[in-house]
Design a protein that fits this description.
With about 450 residues, the protein is α+β, with helices and mostly antiparallel strands. Helix content is about 30%, strand content about 25%. α1 crosses α2 (about 20-25) and α9 (about 265-280) runs antiparallel to α10. It starts with 6 loop residues before the first helix and ends in a 6-residue tail after the last helix. Strands 16-13-15-14-18-19-17-20 form an eight-stranded antiparallel beta sheet. A five-stranded antiparallel beta sheet has the order 6-7-11-9-10. A three-stranded parallel beta sheet has the order 3-5-4, with no helix packed on it. It is built from 15 helices and 20 strands. The chain has helices at about 5-15, 20-25, 50-60, 110-120, 135-140, 180-185, 215-220, 225-230, 265-280, 280-295, 330-345, 385-395, 410-415, 420-430, 440-445; strands at about 30, 40, 45, 65, 80-85, 90-95, 100-105, 120-125, 155-165, 170-175, 195-200, 200-205, 205-215, 230-235, 245-250, 300-305, 315-325, 350-355, 370-380, 400.
Length: about 450
Amino acid sequence: MTSKSSSQTLIAANQPGQANAVSETIKPKWQNWSGFVTANPQMRVAPDDLDALAMVVKNAPGPIRIAGAGHSFTPLVKSEGTIVSLEKFSGLKSHQTEELLARVGAGTQIGTLAKLLHGVGQALPNMGDIDRQAFGGGLGTATHGSGIKLGAYHTQLEAIQLVDGLGAVREYAKKTDGDVINAMGASLGAFGAITEVTIRNVADYKLHRRRWTAPVAEVLDQFEQVMSAHRSAEFFYIPFSGRALMLASDISEGEPGVRPHDSDDDAVATLKTLRNYIGWFPWLRRRLIGTAIAKLPDEDYVEHWLNVYPSDRKTKFNEMEYHLPFEEGAKALRDIITLLETRFPEVYFPIEVRVVAADDVWLSPFYKRRTCSIAIHHDAAEDPLPFFAAAESIFRIYGGRPHWGKMHNLKAKDLKGIYPRWDDAMEVRRDIDPQNRFVSPYVARLLGIENAG
């Protein structure tokens, strides 16, 4: 459970003779959603307000790392010092109807935020397919949906409130502090503790959602056309099927209907069963899966936006996702499919393919380029590292940038070469956190920070 420690408790924890007793009371183990990343911090705390959070930053054992819902697969949250939940910093703080602006707590769950915005006639322009993350975590890891003209969550940023590495509250606005917003739009939790943000939304809308299957070879041959033909387009490639499960959404004025039952987990379970029983016969596996996928009924419905984007995923997995130049997407996916079906037949999870608009955020994987994102998954109970390592070499050949919240092996020396404003972003980070209070050993290796505590 998350500790309910107050600022007074944290003061006591730093007084001689009392640290051990308090630490024993409030140092539960933390793990991410898939269970792949674990941590044993000295403290886990959920401050009530800005004053309490400032006290944590000043006095709690370092490094200080911020935890959301744990849906990142990298060790971004891992710390032997203090893990902070911002669950108390949640909710819709204010909104401006005409400007379509909303100020929200960074700890607000994305699904909850969607409902709050819908209730005041506003909407997120786009969403990912998981809505359980904290919005601040989604911002910090450049989380995104799909749509060639639609950006990641951080492209909505208009203002940021944070507690810096010295415990001071800072406010930045895009109009006056554009470079700072661009520097920390994808913050990795290393630019202080972001507590509230103002985001620019769009008017509430409905979506016409369609699902159908198509031969993956045809989809890849017409990749640019297929992925640009709708407001939002994405697809899943089912290993050994030869077919893509296509999803497309467009704005609609139609009457909302009923979304069909979400059967993703059942489908994944079936794919695992086929892998287990006929994995030694790839030709039979391909025939059975391909035939079943081709017979899937099409979906066609209209619903409010917040009831279309997300899906309910209970089956746990680990994930690697790379963001490639849009024009390299089809070539890279062909190579990944070949790799999976020739060298890693134990993999049964679908490959997810999305597209994202270019943006101006300095550490965004979509910085200055339209992007094709390819996500590969592996059963959380099985070792993903051999497959992921082999796939990563392909992603890098095509100029890929890793998703900050998904598994990868790049370090600062690799990343600096693929982010033109890297040094500028690091300069802003040093100003916000001069004592490296938010820098764990993993973050130090990732960002190339020396002399981190």
